[in-house]
Structure formats: structure tokens, C-alpha cells
Write a structure and sequence with these properties.
The chain has 31 helices and 19 strands. It has an eight-stranded mixed β-sheet. It is globular. The two termini are 29 Å apart.
């Protein structure tokens, strides 16, 4: 039988570029003469900006450290073993760069077994073991602690999670088997399934304690010192750690059933990871950990060799890496400082922008509009939102006062914008209105000021065409809600200069947005793809497909919402306007739905009513529809929509709207919430054969978002 050391040595050879984590063992005398104690510290030698991970060599190092303390425990030289991390970081799990390289099922199985074989040794030592979660802990970092006898957690931890399902994996080093047996299946499913599928929601230290994952909670400043005092009390028998009895009856099955409902509502069966995790949790009801660990190994290996995970890792890398180094962005040294921001308009979008600029840039922000009532309403909205942040404890009173003082309103653009470095307009989506606004702003701002537009579909070049200095106009397209969606499409018009573009990217970074450079083409990236896709769905309804059939057609993709729900969110009037813009540019591919026009004309915002508890077509909307007699099946609608998306992406890449397919995927993930298991969209189109059917080729090279050949 292959030993753990041999298993890890073989895996390490497949991954020569691993950032290796050391497992340093040091000894100390516990307080109150509780005895000699071995403390293992996980550290990869870098600061907190490069978190500690577990690749094969890192696991081998931890295994060697456990060899040492196991020998000491057997000789009664120590009374316990603790494990902690470097400053601000405990450990953030498996090294995904290594997972990407795996080509064979048996190598993937070895990764699962290797982690289990090392971690479970912590549970079988002759002395109690303690995990001290001192900093960020995710995935395998959480799991190594679950194998210990006791756990403490710092109040200062900003991020604690089992994010594997979000990426397309399962917690495969003990998480699925151990966590439900520690805190019960309902709470475990909340952490493993629900949080993962809610945009990888993170827990903070106090929540980790409240859930029962940790046995004690201490302040961050003297966390290790307090943890060791607590450890001494436990080992001396002065403190008895009591955990609640786990209900292994019907409640367990009900929790798993509820977990399946959560998974169905989020991914609609489109990605296997959540369901594999639930299977393991369901089987863990009998408390047989060995059986659970074997099931985790198998699930891990199967999923590692599946394309959903490869798409998930691809998407993760886009968001974590490509987003930080936007393709085509100018040299950041060209950026000009921004010490004051102007916002033209004081409606909801403009007010959201004012709040964001004030919070992130912490510079004066002034809103203008056509009458005092609107200005007051806009400034009032920002102040209300700051008060909400204060109530939630997100800012203190002093910070709230300062932020409020930064946001003011004015009717006089010449006074308001005379010293502004960056002015963004968020007025009515009509070319003439925007050109007039920019002419007024250009007349009063300093020569170096950037003029930005939040247009969602209009030509920036045309908008700037009548100005004396069109080179300082840039598209700065946010997505609604501004505080939630990370994407910012930065649009370069024909005459935009490098300094203006560099300033836009510098501002985007301070706003903590994911900036993607986009060519000045109709509707840019996200709205162009969504409008094409929506056009095909609405077109099938116009031709006679029942609304509910067309609306269900895309469910197998696991998108965040169905087409009709998306239409309601965007607003029929906005969707109709963007469709009109794109129809004018590309009449052969973008239709304008007459039925949608009738809905807008009737002033209807929603197509569905929810009187029966489930969505049904509003009879008033149904009465407006005039449809043909050529209904399609769900599969036919889906094929039609996917073919259209593939065609549109291919055309956008040929036109140079973005640098690469990766940027389109990044836009859909961060601007439309499209799931990681699709990799945005192009990996899905590739693996389903849509790309080749429509364009004759795949969008991505082999191995980029798929198992390497």
C-alpha cells in the first residue's frame, strides 16, 4: 500500500511551481503549569498578501511536523498540540494552481487521499489537539482545524468559509463528513451549500463561534495568548467544553432536503458539486467518518476531472488575477489626481454614484440637477444611506459625519464644477440631452478634468463629437445595483487620450471595481450579449411560444435569474430602449419586439403576478400580446439563444470590442452575475459544442477552462 509520504511525493512532482507552506514546530510551557505544549505554525514565508495554501509539498511538511509531535506525545513529552497560522492568515485551502494541472483521475484521487491522510492524524494523536483560527481560513484551512479536538477563533477574522461548492468542488478533506457531525446538518449545509452559492459569502469570527464551529472566541490583539490560557484551563480540567447533541433522526433528512431546494434554486441542477456535497452530508448521518472521507475522495476526484470545476477555476482566476491587471489599460503613471468629483443628475443612479465616490475616494462630491427639489432628494438619499451604514456598524459616527460633509448639491454647474477633476453624467439616456450636458460642463471645468458618461448603450464618440476637447471623454458604465455588482466597463472613444483613460482606470481601482477596457461599440459588452439573448427569447414568444416555456428554457444553465425576471429587473422600458439602439446598429441580428413595445406603452413594469404564490403571466400583459402560431420547445428556445450568444461573442471578438474572450467572461461574471460553473459563458459554449457549431472553432484553447489534454 502506498504510504502518505510516497503519495505526496508523487503529487509534488506534478506541481513543481508550488508556493510551499512550512509547518514550524516550537515548544512552550503553558500557563498555570499545565505542561509542555507543541505549537505548529503554518507559514509560506510571504506576508498576508500571499495567503498560505496546501499543495502536495506543503502537506508533506505538515505530515513531517505531525511525525515529530506524534513521537513526542507517545513519550509523554508534551500534553497537547496546537496549530495556527502566520499574521492575518490561518490557511486558505488547497492550491488551485496544482489542481488545474491534473490530467488523470488517479492523480486527483491522490490529492484527496493525501489531504485526508495528513489531517486525520491530528485526531488520532495520543494528546488533545487545538486549532487556533487566528486569521483568514478557507477550505482546507477550515478543515485541518475540524480534525482537531478543540478550536478557538479570533474576533478579527474577516473571512472564514468552505467555498468549494462555489468553485465546483466539495469540501473534500473532511468538511462534508465532519462539519455536520460537529454543528448539525442544517448549520453545516448553510456553510457548505448556502453561503457558497450566495456569491461565496464569508463568515466573520463571531459567527464562526455562534455556529459552534469554534469552542471559544477571543479578541484579535492577544488572540494566541488568550487561546493558550484557555488551552491550559481545558487541559487542567478546569473548563469542560460541552457541545450540543446532534439530532440524527428525521431532522437530518429534512436539512438535506432543504439543502437540495437551495441548490435547485441557485444552479437548477446545472452544476454537480452542491448535490455531491449533499450526498456525503446525507450519508454522514451515521457518524461513520471513514466512509465519509472515502466518499469525499471519490467526489473530489470526479469533480476535479470535470469541466464545471475547470470553468470554476478559470472564472476564479479571471476575478482574482485578470481583474487586477486589466488588458489594454494604459500606464498608471499617466493618471491624474482626482481631488473633487462632480455628478450631473441627482436621480437614483446618480445618487448611488455619489455615495460610492464619497466612500471610496473620500473627496468632495457635488450633485447638480435642473431644480432644487431633485438636488435635495439626491443629497438626502446619500445621507440616508450613510446613516444606514452607521446603524449597521459599517462606519463610526465620526466617519459618517465626514462622509455626509463631502456630499453636497448645487443648481449652478459653473460654481460646482469649477475645481472638479472628474465629472460623470447620469442623466436621461438620449444623445441630444447628453451632448447638451457635456457642452455645459466643458465650458466650466478645468482643462485637465475628465468627462465621464454612465451611458449603457450610446456612442461615446458621438457624445464627444461637438466638444473642443473630445480627448478627455471616457465611458464609465456601472451596473445596477452599483454597490453590489463589481463590473465597470471603461469605454475608449475614438479620440480618448491615454491620460484620460489612465485616470479612469485609477479611479476604478480606488472605487474597488473590476474595470474592463471596452471599445466604443453599441451597448458595449454585457448589454449587447444580454439584449441579443433576450431578443431571441422574446422573439420565440412573439412567434407563439408560451411565455412560461420560453422563460424555463435557460434554466439548465443555472443563471441567476430567468429571462423574464431579468427583464422585470432591468425594466421593460430600458430593455426596449437598448434593443432599439442595437437594432439601429445591427438590424439583421437585433429585433425590436412589438409585444415589448406594447408593454412599455401600457406602463407595465412586471409581466408576472404572484397571487397564487408562484409567478404567472399577468392577464393584462397577456391581453396586450399578439403572437404567431409557431411555438418552440424549451430545447429549441435554448438552442436558438445559445447559438445567438455564440455568434454575437464571435463578432465582438472580430470587432475588437474587448481584447480576448476572457474579458467577455469576466464582464458576464462581474456585471451580470453569471455563474462560475459556466466560466462566464465561453467555456460552456465550448464544452456543449455550440461554439464549433456556430463559428467552426472553440473560443478558448484546450486546457484553459477544461481538463488539459
Amino acid at each position: 500500500m502506498t504510504s502518505t509520504a510516497e503519495l505526496l511525493k508523487g503529487a509534488a512532482e506534478l506541481f513543481p511551481d508550488e508556493v510551499v507552506t512550512q509547518a514550524h514546530v516550537r515548544h512552550l510551557d503553558l500557563p498555570a503549569r499545565a505542561g509542555r505544549f507543541a505549537l505548529i505554525t503554518l507559514d509560506n514565508g510571504f506576508d498576508h498578501t500571499k495567503p498560505t495554501t496546501f499543495g502536495p509539498q506543503s502537506l508533506a511538511n505538515l505530515n513531517a511536523a505531525i511525525d515529530q509531535v506524534e513521537g513526542e506525545a507517545a513519550k509523554d513529552e508534551i500534553v497537547g498540540v496546537g496549530i495556527t497560522g502566520k499574521p492575518f492568515i490561518f490557511a486558505v485551502g488547497a492550491d488551485l494552481k496544482g489542481v488545474e494541472l491534473l490530467k488523470r483521475h488517479e492523480d486527483a484521487l491522490a490529492i484527496g487521499k493525501g489531504g485526508h491522510d495528513v489531517f486525520k492524524r491530528l485526531a488520532s494523536l495520543a494528546v488533545p489537539t487545538f486549532a487556533y483560527y487566528n486569521g483568514a481560513a478557507m477550505g482546507g484551512g477550515v478543515e485541518v482545524g475540524l480534525h482537531c479536538t478543540y478550536r478557538t477563533v479570533s474576533k478579527a477574522i474577516p473571512a472564514f468559509s468552505l467555498p468549494e461548492v462555489f468553485l465546483g468542488l466539495v469540501p473534500g478533506w473532511g468538511g462534508c463528513a465532519l462539519l455536520p457531525n460537529l454543528i448539525g446538518p442544517e448549520r453545516a449545509i448553510s456553510v457548505i451549500i448556502e453561503n457558497s452559492l450566495n456569491q461565496n459569502k464569508q463568515l466573520k469570527g463571531p459567527q464562526v463561534y455562534d455556529l459552534g464551529i469554534a469552542d471559544a472566541l477571543f479578541e484579535g490583539a492577544d488572540f494566541l495568548e488568550q487561546s493558550l490560557l484557555w488551552t491550559a484551563s481545558v487541559l487542567r480540567g478546569e473548563l469542560d467544553v460541552v457541545r450540543p447533541e446532534i439530532d440524527r433522526g428525521e431532522a437530518w433528512d429534512q436539512a438535506v432536503a432543504k439543502g437540495k431546494e437551495i441548490a435547485d434554486s441557485k444552479v437548477h441542477g446545472a452544476a454537480p458539486a452542491a448535490y455531491r456535497a449533499l450526498d456525503i452530508i446525507s450519508a454522514a448521518k451515521n457518524g461513520d467518518l471513514r466512509q465519509g472521507f472515502d466518499a469525499e475522495d471519490q467526489a473530489l476526484a470526479d469533480l476535479i476531472m470535470g469541466d464545471e470545476l475547470r470553468s470554476g477555476i478559470y472564472a476564479f482566476n479571471l476575478v482574482q488575477k485578470r481583474a487586477k491587471r486589466p488588458a489594454g489599460a494604459p500606464d498608471k503613471s499617466l493618471a491624474r489626481p482626482v481631488t473633487k468629483v462632480g455628478v450631473v443628475g441627482a436621480g437614483l443612479m446618480a445618487s448611488q454614484l455619489a455615495l460610492l465616490f464619497a466612500r471610496r475616494l473620500e473627496v468632495p462630491v457635488v450633485l447638480t440637477d435642473i431644480d432644487q427639489e431633485r438636488v435635495d432628494k439626491g443629497v438626502g438619499y446619500v445621507h440616508e444611506q450613510i446613516d444606514m451604514l452607521l446603524l449597521k456598524g459599517r462606519v463610526n459616527q465620526d466617519k459618517a459625519n465626514r462622509l455626509k460633509a463631502l456630499v453636497t448639491g448645487s443648481l449652478d454647474k459653473s460654481t460646482a464644477f469649477a475645481d472638479a477633476d472628474f465629472v460623470i453624467e447620469a442623466v436621461f439616456e438620449e444623445m441630444g440631452v447628453k451632448q447638451k450636458v457635456f457642452a455645459e460642463v466643458e465650458a466650466v471645468v478645468p482643462e485637465h478634468a475628465i468627462l465621464a458618461t454612465n451611458t449603457s448603450s450610446l456612442s461615446i464618440t458621438e457624445m464627444a463629437s461637438k466638444l473642443k476637447h473630445p480627448e478627455r471623454v471616457v465611458g464609465f458604465h456601472f451596473f445596477n445595483p452599483v454597490a453590489v455588482l463589481p463590473l465597470l466597463e471603461i469605454v475608449r472613444a475614438e479620440k480618448t487620450d491615454e491620460a484620460s483613460l489612465a485616470t479612469a482606470f485609477a479611479v476604478a481601482k480606488k472605487l474597488k471595481k473590476t474595470a474592463v477596457l471596452v471599445k466604443d461599440a453599441p451597448a458595449f459588452v454585457v448589454n449587447r450579449i444580454l439584449t441579443r439573448f433576450m431578443g431571441e427569447v422574446l422573439g420565440s414568444i412573439d412567434e407563439g411560444t408560451p411565455v412560461e416555456v420560453a422563460d424555463r428554457a435557460l434554466a439548465p444553465l443555472g443563471l441567476p435569474m430567468s429571462p423574464i425576471v431579468l427583464l422585470e429587473l432591468v425594466g421593460p422600458a430600458v430593455a426596449h430602449h437598448v434593443a432599439g439602439t442595437l437594432h439601429a446598429a445591427f438590424p439583421d441580428r437585433f429585433a425590436v419586439s412589438e409585444n415589448l413595445g406594447r408593454i412599455v406603452e401600457a406602463g407595465k413594469r412586471n409581466l408576472y403576478v404572484h397571487d397564487s404564490g408562484k409567478p404567472e403571466l399577468d392577464p393584462e400583459v397577456a391581453a396586450l400580446f399578439q403572437v404567431g402560431d409557431s411555438p418552440l420547445t424549451e430545447e429549441q428556445v435554448r438552442d436558438r439563444a445559445l447559438n445567438a450568444i455564440a455568434e454575437e461573442i464571435d463578432l465582438m471578438l472580430r470587432e475588437g470590442v474587448v481584447a480576448e474572450a476572457q474579458d467577455i467572461d469576466l464582464c458576464l461574471i462581474t456585471g451580470a452575475g453569471w455563474p462560475f460553473h459556466l466560466g462566464g459563458i465561453t467555456p460552456y459554449l465550448d464544452r456543449e459544442g455550440v461554439s464549433e457549431r456556430v463559428t467552426g472553432k472553440k473560443f478558448l484553447a484546450p486546457g484553459v477552462a477544461s481538463v488539459p489534454e
